[in-house]
Amino acid sequence: MKLISNKNQWRLILALLLVAGGLLAFTSCRREEGVILAAGVVDGETAVVKSLVGGEVIRLNLQEGDSVAQGSLLAQIDNSKLQKKLEALDIQAKEIKLNQQKTREKINLLLQVKAYWQDKVERLTRLTQKQSVAGDELEQARIKLTEATTSLFEARQGLKSLQVKLEALANQKQQLLLQLADYSIPSPAEGIVLRKFINQGETVLPGQALAEILISGSLFVETFLEEKELSHLRLGHPVEILVDGLSQPLQGEIFFIGREAEFSPKYIVSEKERKSLLYRVKIKVKDSQESLKLGMPVTVRLRRQ
Predict the structure, then answer these.
(1) How many of the other CB atoms lie within 10 Å of CB of 62?
(2) What is the DSSP letter of 287?
(3) Nearest to 145 by CA among 112, 118, 106
């Protein structure tokens, strides 16, 4: 076995000392005077896109990693059955409008008939008073006038009934149009598609999730701090976020402090801290959110105030 030279031995010893010093500094970093260092992880607000209706996905405009604008069409569900119902309602509406036109023409004709018999009854009444005509002829004219008046009333009632049916069809059509809107699925927010759960051509059920979107500008850092450290913190407290690969820390501020203590999560490195109860703290990132990725581990640095 070849012996290591004295020079190499000193280099090896120096390297071990540096490593040990680094580990010691890391484990004691939380105790640095005036500074709190804690492990954190990047999280964010997400929106789950769900289908309100069931059917075949005939169009899909999303891929994982794509940027989507709020309101942009993400998926289209087959709505052919609804379209057929709408077409049937349009046909019924045309038939009703045609009957309305015929009824109006009938009413105009009955108005003329009524006016004719009204005039004749008045004329025969004058002649009967002068005994120029028989009373039977006047009575027949009155009967004809009554028949014309009754027919006119029935025609007008029929016209009103047709209008009611037309309005009912319009309400049905409006309901179908509202249902039809559910077959086009827009993006609920601007963001990035994290995951998609379906492919074009698949059949989905009502309430089924189609995709998950990370909302733009919603990234935040979550960390856990000990109770004794909370007395130095407040909402809006400035925070530096240290990210591997970035020469300068990102700036942030505390926007949430948990009210109840809980067990620390898995990303806490220290075994002592892992067993202790900590308080959840959330930090809003002010700038350069594009440098962060969901789930990325970071280190947060806070100065006691």
Answers:
(1) 21
(2) S
(3) 118
Show the tokens assigned to 292: 């962060």
Tallying the residues shown for the chain, one arrives at: 305
Residue 148's contacts (CB-CB under 8 Å, 6 or more residues apart) are 110, 113, 114, 117
β-sheet bridge partners, residue 220: 43, 284
Per-residue pLDDT, 113 = 94
Lowest mean pLDDT among 127-131, 235-239, 284-288: 127-131
Percent composition of the chain: helix, strand, coil (DSSP 3-state, to 5)? 45, 25, 30
Q: How confident is the model at residue 286 (pLDDT cuts 50, 70, 90)?
A: confident
- For the cut 50, the answer to whether the pLDDT of residue 133 exceeds it is yes
> What pLDDT does 123 receive?
86
What tokens does 265 get? 């999560």
* Predicted TM-score of the model (pTM): 0.66
Coil, strand or helix: which one is 290?
Answer: helix
User: What would you report as the CA-atom Rg of the chain, rounded to the nearest whole angstrom?
Assistant: 41
Q: Which of 289, 261, 265 lies closest to 277 in space, CA to CA?
A: 261
